[in-house]
Amino acid sequence: MENENRDFGWALARIATGIVMAYYGSQKALGLFGGSGFSATVEGMSSNMGIPEPLVVLAILAEFLGGLGLVVGLLSRVAGFGVFVTMMVAMVVNANRVGGFGVLATGIHDSVNLIFYTFVLGMVALGVVIQGAGAFSLDTRLGIESRIGQVFSRKSA
Known about the structure:
- The chain is mostly helical.
- It has helices at residues 2-30, 38-49, 53-72, 76-97, 109-131, 138-141, 144-152.
- It contains 7 helices and no strands.
C-alpha cells in the first residue's frame, strides 16, 4: 500500500507539472488559450529578449512536447530534462526582469512568484529525470523505463 501511495503521489506531481507545461507550450506552439503561436513566439522572443531563434524553438518544444511527455509518462526522463533546462533559464530570465534574485528579500509577491513558480516546475521535472516517471506511466507500461532507468541507476556492487 505504501508503494502504491508513493507511486500515485509521484504521478500526480508529474502530471500536474506536465499539464502546466503543455498549457503554456500550446500557447507558444499552436496559439491556443490566447497564445501567439509558433512564428510570433519565435519572432517575439528573439527580437524582444535577444534569444537566438534555435533556442526559442527548443524551449517551445520542451514546454509543449515535454509537458505532454510528462502528462502521459512517455520518454519522461528526456521530457523532464527539457522542462528542467527551460524552467531554469526562465527562472533566471524572470529574476533579471524584476531586478535580480535580490528581489526575494523584498517579498514583492508578483516578482517572487515569477522566480519560485519556474523553480518549482523545474525541480519536479528534475525529479522525473532522477527518479523516472513511476509506475503510472507509459514508460513503465511499455518497458521503456526499465531500459532507460538502467542508465541512471546505480549498479549493485
